[in-house]
Amino acid sequence: MSDGTYTWAYVIVAVIAANLPWLTERRFFLLPTKTAKSAAFRLLEWLVMYFVTGAIGLGLEHQMTGQIYHKSWVFFTVTVSLFIVFALPGFVYRYDLRKHLRAGR
What we know:
mainly alpha
C-alpha cells in the first residue's frame, strides 16, 4: 500500500476509536455490563483508545519511514485536540441525540 493509503486508513481507525466508548455499553469493548457505564468510565476508555491509536500510529510511522521521530508537547496537544473533535459525533449521539430519537417513537 502507498503512504497515502496508510494515512487515510489511520485517520479512519482514529475516528472509529474515538467514538467507540460512546457507542457501546461493554467495558473496554469486551466485558458486558449489567448497569450503564458512567461518564467517567467512558472518558477513561476514550483516553485508553487515544493511547492505543497513538501506538498504532507509531507502528505505522516506523513501517513507513524506518524510524520513530521525536515528538514535542505541541504534537501531543494537537493530537489530543483532534481526537476530541473525532469523538464529538459519538458524544453527541450518547448524551443528546438518543433522547430525541427515543422521544420521537
